[in-house]
Amino acid sequence: MAYDRIVKHYDNVVDTYINLPFYLKHEYSDFLLSYIKPLTLDKTVLDIGCGTCHFSELLNAKKLTCVDPSKEMLSERPLLNNQEKHISDGIGFLKNIHSQYDVIILKECLHHFSDEDKLTLLKLCYENANTTIIVARPNDNQYPWFKKAQESFENNSVKISSLKNMLVELNFSFIKETLLVPIKIPSGQWLKMIKNRFWSNLSYVSDIELLKGVHEIQIRDEKEILFNDKIVLMIATHNK
Question: What is the CATH number of the domain that holds 15?
């Protein structure tokens, strides 16, 4: 994992991140919660790569442990009575804990790990929880942005076939669902998300490439941005 790059990216974007549609849009969170919340209700939950903890705080967990390498992200929301927060990467945290969890959540974070580190992380999840829930945007997702951004996304996203092979290798039993979340965003907000590098893959795009890309979108002169956000949900349990 390009640890320093990722931490710096999220430390820098937190102020704008929390006011953008993917963060505030209730339809988006509700869609995912309808699948995940029944598995976490009244459970002990560990959320790795939790960001601000906004999503995991909606899970009604009995005890919630939130882990993220970005201090700025973790500091954005107050601590709840049933919650712990730890500034750490997922692998380092799991190697040093002495707790077992009902559920570990890996929501939109696996793309930050190399294949070797993904395998290590998933092995640690197998050893420390009964269920591991994975939420990922696959690398074949098509977004209405610009060529360089799409190339960066495809190169820095999760390859689902490779992920499935890892789960099999580690003796997980799993189910996979592909969800299409309908997204409608005013063009101005969409441009703001891109300018502020809402997606971490945009940290690999130079300032000049970003400006050219924003101009490319502006000349389309669209009032609203409409697309389906493809999300892969995988629920992995011990193979008995």
Answer: 3.40.50.150
